[in-house]
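Narrative summary of target 7.
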Amino acid sequence: MLKFVLTLALASVAAAELSCEDCSAIGTAVGTEATSEAGIQGQVEFLMAGGICNGIPAELECETNFPAFWAAIATALFDPAQGWYAPQFLCEDLCAKKTFMKTPSCNDCVTRVYGSTSYMADEEIQIQAVASFIDGGFCTQFGDENVDACSTALEIV
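Modeled conformation, tokenized:
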């Protein structure tokens, strides 16, 4: 998935406006891919190769636990209906003004997805996302005995 987004980003130069409908279709497709088994596996491989477990305390057993932990994060974070790329978030500005084009270009899609992905890289946005996961009870799915470890791991990831 990340390779897909990065490939799209490299092709981007400038973009015209997408319609609400086109943007919504793109957001849903990206969210669906990002939460698919293959998409999550690609993200795990990318993050593991990038050294996500380097320096992680041994008691968190990152090498063993990270793939399932990331799958839970990615499933919530990129959920096509409520996640990062969900049309209500990715396309909010477009759908508010309801612009229409005949056919969107590849650059239209790339610019929208890459811009949203770049926004996700902002440290303050990451802090807010982690707080939302913790405050929303995300870690309870791993059992009450693992909530503290999960919260620590969210801050690391």
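Residues 62-77 form the longest helix (16 residues).
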